[in-house]
Amino acid sequence: MNEILVLYYSRQGSTAALARQVCRGVETVAGMAARLRTVPAVSAATVRIEPGVPEEGAPYASHEDLLECCGLILGSPTRFGNMAAPLKHFLDGTSALWLSGALVGKPAAVFTSTQTLHGGQESTLLSMMIPLLHQGMYLVGLPFTESGLTRTRGGGTPYGAGHVAETSGRGQLSEVERELARALGSRVAALADRLQRSAAR
């Protein structure tokens, strides 16, 4: 139970790049590890069926990943100011976890990527928080003590880490974007560690 699930959907590689930096941040906390997972694209069954295992990148997530990990960090590209359908589809299938209270008391955070500066980063991050609140999770953001928030010219907000592709290139994170993604991972892992130590007393 010393793993943080870093769960993302990415089409062009930017959200995946952020996810890898988040994982690096998680693993700066002694005794904590990141479990990197993705979700399959959503498409009509009459068009195609996604393979059970992705051809490249992280494995697909399961509900067992949510149960086995002590925290969750979600990442999605923006879709008109909202999370992408594949991630929403996965979250929509977690009602059994909600009924059992399986995620209550676990820390969680969110991150996103957009093509343009005003692509809806903050509303996307907020939309991703709503299911986590319903699951009873503790939300973790980025405080302004993270100096990158005042230096960024791309992604990154108090609601979570981010990337703006037009400022540095698709999948090419700026140094500040990498810094803030690592800070988010570290903050969630540190809180999960404290919560577990407290519960063990």
Model description:
The protein is α/β, with parallel strands linked by helices and 201 residues long. It has one domain: Rossmann fold, CATH 3.40.50. Helices cover 40% and strands 16% of the residues. It has 8 helices and 6 strands. The chain has helices at 14-26, 63-68, 85-92, 95-100, 121-134, 148-151, 165-168, 175-200, and strands at 3-8, 33-38, 71-77, 107-114, 138-139, 161-164. Strands 1, 2, 3, 4, 5 and 6 form a 6-stranded parallel β-sheet that branches. Strand 4, helix 5 and strand 5 form a beta-alpha-beta unit. Helix 1 (14-26) packs across helix 8 (175-200). The radius of gyration is 16 Å and the shape is globular. The two termini are 16 Å apart. The model has no long low-confidence stretch (mean pLDDT 92).
Indicate the CATH topology. Rossmann fold
Globally, the shape reads globular
How many domain regions? Answer: 1
Total DSSP helices: 8
CATH class category: Alpha Beta
Global mean pLDDT: 92
Percent of residues in helices comes to 40-55%
The CATH homologous superfamily is called Flavodoxin domain
Q: What value does the Rg take, in angstroms? A: 16 Å
How many DSSP-defined strands?
6
Annotated CATH architecture: 3-Layer(aba) Sandwich
Beta-strand proportion: 15-25%
- Stretches where pLDDT is under 50 for at least 5 consecutive residues are none
CA-CA gap between termini: 16 Å
Instruction: Supply the helix-strand structural class.
Output: alpha/beta
List keywords for this structure.
single chain; alpha/beta; Rossmann fold; six-stranded parallel beta sheet; 8 helices
